[in-house]
Amino acid sequence: MRIITIVNQKGGTGKTTTAINLGVALANKGKRVLLIDFDPQTSLTYSLGIKDANPTIADVMLNGKTRLINTLTPTQEGPQVVPGSLTLADVELSLSTKIGRENILKNRLDGLEGFDFVFIDSPPSLSMLTVNALNVSHEVLIPLQMEILSLQGLSQLLNTIVEVKEILNKGLKIAGIIPSMFDNRRNLSKEILQTLKTNTKEKIFNTVIRECVKIAEAPSFAKSVLSYAPASNGAVDFIDLAEEFLKGR
Ligand SMILES: Nc1ncnc2c1ncn2[C@@H]1O[C@H](COP(=O)(O)OP(=O)(O)OP(=O)(O)O)[C@@H](O)[C@H]1O
Ligand SMILES: [Mg+2]
User: Fold this and answer.
1) Cβ 212 under 6 angstroms from ligand 1
2) Cross-strand bridge partners of residue 37
């Protein structure tokens, strides 16, 4: 079992989209996948059509009585989900005064043995929630838009990952950077990808996730792009990404 946080403190870089569609692509290959919605925005929970979830990951974080295993929610798309909640914003606040605040999620993980991959969808900040997620993870995946400001944000993110490695979680690995919302028609996307390749020693996936309107439409139907538009670029890209992700494991 591998726990992988999908992280980028910048908003709207494709974290939730990656969690869902990479998760579904892996589930379609027979992998047992769990998605944890660790963002108070609850986009992942909503995008998979889960409503009024109770209990959620916020209950697990707020009290030791609710077990993670009791929050597992099946979906039609394949992966199971630990639903998120707006209350995660309160969790974030309460963590600021808690002793051992980096370790709360770590102390409350249970029942994950049956999964091959657990993906944690994190909020767009380097908050205590994100640190809790990084602390329990074996790996991180970084979806990155091909824009100049994203490159700037990347060095800050890599610094945080180094700090977490030094202080909390020695084994944390960067599984790779995923170029997201790639626009083939714009030279800028290609130029930035080139700059990124020359300036970082981290793995950059060969698979790029192209801009594809079907990806943005799918959540309205509580579906992944793989089942909503199986022939679309988006579906093809996430299947390719799943294959590249599995290579060498
Ligand atoms: N390849 C793509 N092509 C077109 N639209 C996309 C693509 N990837 C993501 N989107 C859309 O862009 C928006 C942001 O994506 P997403 O929610 O996955 O980002 P995020 O990093 O999780 O955002 P946040 O930081 O707010 O959690 C969503 O509306 C999503 O449907
Ligand atoms: Mg998100």
Assistant:
1) yes
2) 121
Q: Which band of pLDDT confidence, cut at 50, 70 and 90, is reported for residue 64?
A: confident
- Residue 186 sits in a domain of what CATH number? 3.40.50.300
- Closest atom of ligand 1 to 234 CA is 1
Mean pLDDT of 187-216: 95
Q: How many domains does the chain contain in total?
A: 1
Question: What pTM did the predictor assign?
Answer: 0.98
**C-alpha dist (Å) from residue 161 to 36, 82, 140, 164, 169:** 20, 24, 9, 5, 9
- Quick one: average pLDDT of 192-219? 96
Looking at ligand 1, which atom is closest to the CA of residue 180? 1
Nearest atom (ligand 1) to Cα of 19: 18
Q: 185 or 122: which carries more pLDDT confidence?
A: 122
Q: Which domain holds residue 197?
A: 2-246
Residue 9 burial (10 A CB sphere; 0-12, 13-18, 19+): middle
Given this model, what pLDDT does residue 184 score? 84
Pocket residue to mutate for ligand 1, from 5, 17, 149, 150, most atoms within 8 A of Cβ? 17
Rounded-to-integer distance, Cα 187 and Cα 96, Å: 44
- Determine if ligand 1 sits within 6 Å of the CB of residue 211: yes
